[in-house]
Structure formats: C-alpha cells, structure tokens
C-alpha cells in the first residue's frame, strides 16, 4: 500500500493527464480523504494542499478550453428569495460560451519550468538547472463585459433569452467569433450596439451605438490597441491623463491606451463620465453604460478571488471575482479587505463622485506556513540536519537557506566528517527566520588520533577483500510483493517497490509491461517529492527530475523499430558522478541516456520500480553488482 505522501504524488501526476473535468473529480475526493485521515501530519496537509491547487488550476484550464455557457449567479441574498432557472442556450453556444459575473479564473500565459537540484545534492555548489519549454498555452478567451450603474436590468445577446444584470454587471468569456448584437434594458432605459470579434484580432463596433436615458461608451480592445465609440458627441476624451481626439458615434482610435488598467474620461463638467478598468490582452468588448443618477462606481482590486470587502467597517454582500469587485456608491468610503491565508492589508479611503469610477488597489500577501533556517559564515560542506533529517549542505561561500521548516520545537545540527558537530534547539515560528552565524556556524576540526605505539609486528600479507555480494530479487525491501511466475516475477497494483541495497553499481533486468503502457523506475529517491524517474514504452524513453514535488522532463529519447514491443532488457550504471542507461538491441547495447552534471550526487537515495493504478509488470533476470 502506498504511503500518504507517495499516493498524493501519484494523484498529482494523474492531474496533468486529465483530459476532462470528470477525471478530476475522483482525484479531488481522494485528496480530501487523505487530508482528513492525516489531519495532524503537517507534511501530508502541505502536499495535499499543493496538489489541490494544481487540480484547481487544471480544472480552470479545462473549463476555458470547453467554453461552456452558464448563467450569471445571483447575489447570495437573492438566491433564497427568487431562484431563477438557467436559460437554455442554443447548441452552437453551449460549446462556446460561459456567462456570469463569478465565472472562471484567468488562463496561464506561459510557463517555463526551471529545475533546481536541491542544495543537499550539490554540496553547496551552484545548483544545476534544466529549463524546459512547455507546449504553447491556448490563447485567452474573447470576452464581452458590460458595466452599468443600473439598479436592475437585463442583457440580451443575439437570439438568446434575456439574462439579469448582477449588481449592474454582465461578463461573458469565450465569445464565439463572428457578428453579435447586444441589448441592455432597465426600466425606461435602453442601449443597443453590434460588434464583430475574432480570435487574436482587434474587435470592432460594427454599427451605431444607441442609448435612451443612458450615456454609452463602448471600448473595442486587443492588447495595446483600442477604439472608443459613444452614442453621442463629439465629446472631450482623455485617456490615462493624455488628451485624445474627440469621442463620438463614428469612433476614435486611442493613442495612449495599453493593456492593463486604463483610466478613461469622456465629456466635461456635469456631463463628465470617468471609467477606470483593467483591459486584458485578448480581444475584448467593454461597454460602460451610465445614468444621470447621483451615483458612482468603486472598484476594489485585490488580485485574488473570494476576498471579503468591508465598506465603512460593514461586510459587503459579495466577494471579489476575477480579482476585483465593482460597487455602486457615492461619497467618501473607508475600505478594507480580508481573506483566510493572507496577511491583513492596510485600509484605504476614497471619494467616489457622481458618474465616475474610483479604483482602490490592495496587495495581498500569503501568510507564511513554514519557517526559515539560514546559515551564514558556516563551514563549507557541513551537512544541515533538522530533527535527524538531512535538508542540505552549507555552500562553498559558507551560506545555506532552507525555507520549509515546519513550525514548532526543532533540533538543528551541523555535521561534517572530521569536524566536531554542533547542535541547537529552537522554536520555529511561521514566516520568521532563524539564523546561525559567526562562531556558532563554524565547526572545529577534530584532532588526528595519536599514532599507535611502535612495536615489532610480523608482516602478514593480507588477502584482497572478496568482491561485493551481488544483489537479486530477494534484496528488495519487501520481496513478497513479487510473485514468482514461470521463472520470472510479477507485481500488480499501485506501489513503489524499493531496493534495499545502496544503488552504487550495475543493474540489469528485463521488464515486461503485462498491463499498462509504460515501465517506470526511480533512482536518487530521497522522499516522495525528490527523486529521478525513468519511463519506457515502445516509442520513447523519458527521464524526469522531481524536485520539491515539481516534475520536469530532463530528456526525451525517441525509440524506433520497436513496433508493439512490451519487453525491454535494461542496463543501468550508477556511480557518484553519473547514471548511464542502455537498452539491449540484438547482440549489443544501445545507449539511452547518460546523465552527468557537476555537483550532483547520483549515488544517493534508493532505487525501485513504480507501478501505478491497476498496472502489472513482469521482471526477469534481475541482477545488481555493487561497486
């Protein structure tokens, strides 16, 4: 049976392989079960939390790819009074739209994975890093946004049924390419406009913008390009403090616009309308519809979702979505924000004026859950141990930093062969560093032992030591997990089958995939979050490095002319300075991978086979010759 941390790591690998939301649901439930069963285990809680975060990110990415349409969620205060059924979208929109003021999270733009081999592998030397360029991310979805100061109203898009504004807002991600018409209505007020939008192209307003008892400003933006169309004009236009050509029904291209937060002012005097909103890099249509009511808009920006907003010390009815919250109000306000897991942010005050938008930016920092151990001016090469567990070594410059110390009473030791060790007891506090420096960080050299007294001894020629005993299948830590079958051995079901002998020498074996597409084994296995993993099938040999739970492909070697072969004879040479893999090919050996980097200690940790899910592997002719 897998240990909790090993099972979490196996579940984490399944997250990246999920192709739809249904595949993520059982993983999420199992992570919850593991976390509840080990509520007092800090390492399990931390690993489960990180895996859940990656699951949520994967789910958001899959949601964005499917672009399914959902109705806007009403405020919590209205759900119990008047639950409304979701409108039934047409078949073409079901695959392309996702509607609501609280839907989705932003798509990641680009990921560059940099593998840093942990300090304990490097002996303090500069870490070896491998940069991996991932597949290009999907483009951000095309969007339609409508911001009004209407107390109540509806939005109709093309031939779809009208949908309610939620506190004056309507946001739609994944707008299909093509021509569309929008109608916004509220009591005796109405605005209609049409637009054209397409992936990775500047959108456009394709007809007149009409408005009754409203002033309408429609912005068609794409990256650093934008064009404004209004229902009336010409009117004075200022963007980010710089004067532009007058705005009007014919539209005007903006010179001072840029992706990000832009401040737009249309009109002057009592007719001045101010807007301050964040514009993303994707094609986007944003409509600002303003009444002549004595009201303005407060935008609370936090960069985080589900943040509680307090106005004048009273909690607001909705929490942030898409990193911000828009509130219709007027006059001076005092605002503070709060979210579990984040440090308190200082409150801010603002004066919200009629017809204008005022934006307050809050920066939220996550509350640390671990403490920091730092060594400065220490003995180079000294190993650092916390509670009898090695966490790295002091570098050549005498420095060391470890930022994942669980809070509480801990024992810290500095050790190095031929030096006097030092031991410290310290109560670590989350987010707080504990520094060992100066004389406390320097180890004294052990004096050499006195020479033995001289005496006449008979010189006896010693026999050379016998070669190290070769290892076999019986030397696995739990050999009973292998079932003998026709001269070989078989294992079924998820497990990490670790070998008991130190992996310094030559492994040879024939592995067969009886059930499952890949054979997997690990070297340099220190714990479930730090090891090297190797995988083979009849098409590819893959070498990965997992550091602090983050997996990066180190090399990927195509295999040719193997057809449907599911049995491979492998040779692995493990030495302190390298790991070399070869594949039996006819009467010879074909090189698969030679891994050698300065500062990396390849002989540390354990060797073992990894079996996932319901897979089944066979093993024959297993031998290990230590060196």
Main attributes?
627 residues; mainly beta; seven-stranded antiparallel β-sheet; elongated
Topology readout:
Layout: H1 4-17, H2 21-37, H3 42-66, H4 76-79, H5 91-94, E1 98-99, E2 113-116, H6 119-122, E3 129-132, E4 143-148, E5 154-157, E6 163-164, E7 169-173, E8 178-186, E9 189-197, E10 204-205, E11 210-212, E12 215-222, E13 225-230, E14 237-239, E15 242-243, E16 252-253, E17 260-266, E18 273-279, E19 284-290, E20 296-301, E21 308-311, E22 314-315, E23 324-329, E24 331-338, E25 348-352, E26 357-361, E27 371-375, E28 383-386, E29 389-393, E30 400-405, E31 408-415, E32 422-428, E33 433-436, E34 483-485, E35 488-492, E36 495-498, E37 505-515, E38 519-527, E39 530-536, E40 540-547, E41 550-558, E42 567-575, E43 578-585, E44 588-595, E45 606-611, E46 616-626
Walk me through this protein's architecture.
The chain is mainly beta and 627 residues long. It is 11% helix and 42% strand. It is built from 6 helices and 46 strands. The longest helix is centred in the N-terminal third of the chain and has 25 residues, at 42-66. It is elongated, with a radius of gyration of 32 Å. The two termini are 32 Å apart. The model is unreliable at 68-134 (pLDDT under 50).
State the share of residues found in helices, binned by percent: 10-25%
What is the overall silhouette? Answer: elongated
Largest sheet: 7 strands, mixed
| Number of helical regions | 6
How far from one another are the termini?
A: 32 Å
Average pLDDT rating:
85
The percentage of residues in β strands lies in 35-45%
| Computed CA radius of gyration, to the nearest angstrom | 32 Å
Which stretches are poorly predicted, pLDDT < 50 over at least 5 residues? 68-134
Strand order of the largest sheet: 1-7-4-19-12-13-16
Can you count the beta strands?
Answer: 46
Structural class: mainly beta
């Amino acid at each position: 049976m897998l240990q909790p941390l090993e099972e979490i790591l196996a579940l984490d690998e399944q997250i990246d392989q999920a192709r739809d939301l249904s595949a993520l649901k059982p993983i999420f439930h199992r992570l919850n079960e593991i976390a509840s069963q080990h509520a007092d285990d800090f390492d399990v809680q931390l690993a489960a939390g990180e895996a859940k975060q990656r699951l949520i990110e994967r789910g958001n990415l899959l949601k964005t790819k499917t672009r399914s349409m959902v109705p806007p969620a009403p405020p919590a205060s209205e759900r119990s009074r008047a639950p409304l059924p979701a409108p039934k979208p047409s078949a073409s929109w079901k695959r392309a739209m996702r509607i609501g003021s609280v839907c989705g999270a932003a798509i990641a733009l680009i990921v560059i994975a940099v593998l840093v081999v942990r300090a304990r592998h490097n002996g303090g030397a500069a870490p070896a890093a491998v940069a991996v360029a991932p597949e290009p991310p999907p483009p951000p979805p095309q969007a339609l946004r409508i911001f009004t100061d209407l107390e109540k109203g509806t939005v109709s898009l093309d031939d779809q049924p009208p949908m309610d504004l939620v506190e004056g807002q309507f946001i739609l991600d994944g707008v299909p390419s093509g021509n569309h018409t929008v109608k916004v209505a509220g009591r005796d007020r109405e605005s209609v406009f049409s637009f054209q939008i397409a992936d990775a192209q500047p959108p456009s307003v394709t007809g007149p913008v009409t408005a009754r008892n409203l002033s309408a400003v429609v912005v068609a933006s794409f990256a650093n390009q934008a064009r404004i169309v209004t229902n009336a004009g010409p009117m004075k236009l200022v963007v980010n403090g710089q004067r532009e050509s007058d705005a009007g029904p014919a539209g005007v291209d903006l010179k001072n616009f840029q992706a990000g937060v832009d401040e737009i002012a249309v009109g002057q005097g009592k007719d001045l309308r101010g807007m301050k909103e964040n514009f993303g890099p994707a094609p986007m249509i944003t409509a600002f519809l303003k009444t002549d009511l004595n009201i303005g808009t407060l935008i609370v920006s936090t960069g985080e979702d589900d943040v509680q907003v307090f106005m004048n010390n009273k909690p607001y009815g909705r929490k942030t979505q898409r990193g911000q919250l828009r509130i219709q109000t007027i006059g001076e306000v005092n605002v503070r924000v709060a979210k579990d897991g984040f440090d308190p942010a200082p409150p801010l005050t603002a004066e919200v004026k009629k017809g204008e938008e005022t934006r307050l930016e809050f920066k939220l920092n996550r509350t640390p859950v671990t403490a920091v151990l730092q060594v400065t001016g220490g003995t180079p090469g000294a190993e650092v141990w916390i509670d009898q567990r090695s966490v790295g070594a002091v570098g050549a410059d005498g420095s060391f930093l470890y930022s994942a110390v669980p809070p509480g009473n801990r024992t810290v030791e500095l050790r190095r062969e031929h030096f006097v060790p030092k031991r410290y007891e310290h109560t670590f506090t989350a987010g707080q560093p504990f520094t060992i420096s100066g004389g406390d960080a320097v180890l004294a050299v052990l004096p050499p032992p006195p020479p033995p007294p001289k005496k006449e001894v008979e010189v006896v020629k010693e026999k050379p030591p016998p070669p190290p005993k070769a290892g076999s299948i019986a030397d696995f830590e739990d050999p009973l997990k292998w079932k003998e079958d026709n001269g070989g051995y078989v294992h079924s079901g998820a497990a990490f089958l670790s070998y008991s002998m130190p992996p310094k020498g030559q492994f040879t074996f024939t592995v067969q995939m009886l059930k499952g597409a890949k054979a997997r084994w690990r070297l340099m296995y220190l714990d479930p979050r730090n090891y090297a993993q190797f995988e083979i099938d009849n098409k590819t040999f893959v070498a990965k490095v997992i550091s602090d739970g983050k997996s990066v492909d180190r090399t990927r070697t195509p295999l040719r002319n193997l057809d449907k072969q599911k049995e491979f004879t492998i040779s692995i040479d493990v030495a302190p300075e390298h790991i070399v893999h070869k594949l039996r090919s006819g009467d010879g050996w074909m090189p698969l991978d030679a891994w050698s980097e300065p500062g990396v200690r390849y002989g540390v940790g354990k060797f073992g086979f990894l079996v996932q899910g319901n897979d089944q592997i066979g093993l024959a002719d297993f031998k290990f010759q230590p060196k």
